[in-house]
Amino acid sequence: MMKKFKIAVFVGSLRKASFNLKTAKALKALAPGSLSLEVVNIASLPFFNEDLEATPPKEWVELRKQIAAADGVLFLTPEYNRSVPAVLKNAIDVGSRPYGQNSWSGKPGAVVSVSIGNISGFGANHHLRQSLVFVNVPAMAQPEAYIAEASGLFNDAGELINGSTREFLIKFMEAYAQWVEVNVKK
Ligand code: FNR
Fold first, then answer.
1. If you take atom 1 of ligand 1, which residue's CA is the nearest one?
2. Is 177 helix (H, G, I), strand (E, B) or coil?
3. Euclidean distance between CA atoms 149 and 1, whole angstroms
4. Hey, whose CA ends up nearest to atom 23 of ligand 1?
5. What is the Å distance from ligand 1's center to 81 Cα?
6. Strand partners, 72
């Protein structure tokens, strides 16, 4: 039987109607059978504060476990003021600590940025990649995924209705599945 890889999905928007979340749901549906995607809840993660490490908040412990249990990590990020939203950066920081116990290390990753504008979250996408280098997540280089003008891509039920975006995301997930297979921690 084909091995199933567990992919933890991190969405940098907490809005119910988030286009990043809608894209995450589309990716879950379009992903090849070798990947199983689950969105990780980062909404109530307390801000990282090293003083709390003596008795870490239960949400930190849970997040670290969820990252550790995943074979790969997939990020969907909006762009806030040309960078990564604080909620997503906080999750990266929490997962990278306590010092010497970086849960992210070696998990094959990928980045998708989704914006209602037409620069497609490029700034956030690349700021995120900068952090991923430091936490030792090998992030797939190609294809890059910049999803522009997202408000026109979904119907009222939140389903992806744009054919060319759908075709692109299928190819993107096929490439990511190969990336995971080659780079998964042995
Ligand atoms: C934005 N938005 C935005 N868009 C963009 O392309 N570049 C940017 O720098 C910003 N900056 C920004 C800052 C803040 C505080 C907010 C709230 C929004 C717009 C953003 O792309 C839009 O709100 C998306 O809909 C956010 O993604 P979700 O929530 O739909 O996933």
1. 80
2. helix
3. 40
4. 116
5. 7
6. 7
Provide CB contacts within 8 A for 8, sequence distance 6+.
38, 40, 66, 67, 69, 70, 72, 73, 74
pTM, entire model:
0.98
Contact 108, 180 (CB under 8 A): yes
pLDDT tens for each residue of 119-160: 999 999 999 999 999 999 999 999 999 999 999 999 999 999
Span from the CA of 89 to the centroid of ligand 1 (angstroms): 15
Q: What is the domain partition of the chain in residue ranges?
A: 5-183
CATH topology of domain 5-183: Rossmann fold (3.40.50)
Measuring CA to CA, which residue among 117, 141, 15 is closest to residue 24? 15
Residue 166: helix, strand or coil by DSSP?
helix
CA 106 to chain centre: 15
Tell how far the Cα of 7 is from the centroid of ligand 1, in angstroms.
25
- 100-108 mean pLDDT: 98
